[in-house]
Design brief:
Layout lengths: L1 H27 L9 H8 L2 H4 L9 H23 L1 H8 L3 H4 L4 H4 L1 H13 L1 H10 L4 H19 L5 H30 L4 H35 L27 H29 L5 H26 L4 H22 L4 H14 L7 H9 L3 H31 L14 H4 L2 H32 L1
Helix pairs in contact: 4-8, 4-11, 4-12, 5-12, 5-13, 8-11, 8-18, 9-11, 9-18, 10-11, 11-18, 12-14, 13-14, 13-18, 13-20, 14-16, 15-16, 15-20, 17-18
Length: about 475
Amino acid sequence: MPGSSSESSAYGAQSSVATTDDIELAIHLPLPPSLSTPAASSLRSVPHEERGRALRPVDKGFGAWSFLAAAFIVQTVVWAFPNTYGVFLSAYLNDSRFVSQPHAHSILPLVGTLSSGIIYCSSPFWDAILRRYPRQRRPAMWLGAFMCFASLLGASYATTIIGLVTLQGVIYALGASLIWQPALSYLSEWFVERRGMANGAMFAGTALGGLFLPLILPPLITSYGSAVTLRYLPRLPESRVQGPSRREESQAWMKDWRFWALLLINTLQGLAYFVPLVYLPTFTSSLNSSTLVSALPIALLNGAAVFGRVGLGVLSDKFSPWLLAIYALLLSSISTFMLWGFGGGATAGVIVFGSAYGLVAGGWTSLWNGFVKPLSKGDRTNATTLYSILLFSRGLGNVISTPISNALAAEPVPGTLRVHTGFDVDGGRYGSMILYVGSCFAAASVLTTAGFVCERIMAKRSS
């Protein structure tokens, strides 16, 4: 029929046009993601009602600032005991139960070293696990809080040095690292442009506990003993931040010379920084100071570190981290030689050294953001990984520094004639230790200066 023939022709023409349009659309529109891709996997893992929910703003707002406040409190509690172990060490060395045991003077300092060193060194391990299972960060923090509580409670009943090393040193550190690492990973999610300031504020919390605890511990230890004192531990707050989905990240930073230079400098800084934290209370006790006065330098050190970390954190958002690092490391070396070495023959000199040292050396970790930002290239996952590696190298320096300082303290400085300097305290026992700390800072400042010069030369060549 003529009508049917014309309708068929029209239908065929429309089909041809539709087919052509479909082909063009197929070329320009991507296929829906496969259920096996990471994108689809992350979509499946997010509840339907949360997919359309707007993310809270970074660098501002209640969410960011409340996280920073919570992280500050967490760091204050977690690091209070490792940063003030010198007070416990002084008490243990005067406790007949422990000091009478074999090798007490060389093993007891390891408790503080392990408690802080394991937190640092385990950071890359926990970072790899939490990147793979980000939604397990909150349960990890609860587990860590329980381990910290149980370890200190158990240490209060310990009667052997090995028991103290295991409980107050190793188990406490493992629990603390389960709290520390999730908080560090959340920082990179909540702060981007102001991450240096946030980093400094969070790390300032690690020093705040070390400000008040040395002033609280001596009266408690004197009245109740170290065992009962260890049983006072506040409850850790709960984090309510939601975890991100997993994604692949670039590791181009591993081929960047700045990363390896920073790693070496950071390790040198760690080799020096923790020695005064362990030995200042016993050093001050050697000057015939009271128990409370002996704890004052370490308290002021940690208190000054709060200001140093916040200040350098803010400055790292605006100025070259290389220049700030040169300033911090050089002044740390000078303060060690001048204030601890030459001025440490009197209690007042040790107190001044503690304050100055905390201000200039205590802010080092706040500079990490300035170094990490150009290496991570805006990738928050890379930033957290780099922080973890820096924590590991710093912890490595911490762990290695204890046997080195123990060996240096075993022999007095030969040929010492002065009697009114820190080099001669307790028969010159601490002289080599002071030289070691100051020299490590000096070497780190030289390497940092070389790194700054190299970066400037390369920047001029590329421009």
